[in-house]
Amino acid sequence: MNYRDTFSYTTISESLVDEHFGRPLYYYNTIGSTNIEAKILATSGSPEGTLIVADEQTAGRGRFNRHWSTPKGSGLAVSFILKSRLSNPQISQMPMLGSLATAYAIEQLCNTSPQLKWPNDVWIEQKKIAGILVETSYTKNLPEWLILGIGVNVNSAPLKVTNPYYDTSCLADIIGHKVDRVNLLQRLVHNVGLLYNKLEKNSIRKEWQKRMLWKNQHIEVIDSDQNPIEGIALGIEPNGALLLQLLSGEHVNIYSGEIRLRSN
Fold this sequence. Notes:
The chain is α+β, with helices and mostly antiparallel strands.
């Protein structure tokens, strides 16, 4: 497939003409954070399916408020506004949905099979390629809207180390040539729409687990209180929790934390 340099409102909107999501489309040459802009638009009443895309993102965030940069012309920084399927079980599947849609898009365009690292990362060859950030607004304990943010290192890797526990890379370095970001974005939007319509069928978790990084292996979890917990990663629960078998044999659910592979 031919590579093109043009990444613009026109080329993106033309590629999304047949997609359910991506309208309205907000495109920015430079932005602080697509998720922050998406929250402003959602609060102002922008409809489900609204897509925010930036060529350069200077103040993006990942989990634990880690910096996620997208240098100009290098990657994908996108956010979706979602509103209609926001029951608690469905919200818990949104990080799975985002990472699985990203993996599908990469596989379809780049002929490589990404793995998914709990809770919200996309990895290839033991390196992080993409990350997901989900943010939700509640009114009277009911979800009002949800922002699904996705960042992908496409044609260059981050210049700064944001997490000392793992390496990062980009698609171009792994497959040996540059990737057309418009084509990758179109496939990402298409797969988000397909999976969003499958939320009630509980198939997303099953498909996610097929690609789970370090499944049935000995890992260490650093939980939200910075406590290390060792065990075997068995899978994920319907609510998105990591199912861990402790060294004692007990099974526990981990709801938040950072995981890394333990050497035997």
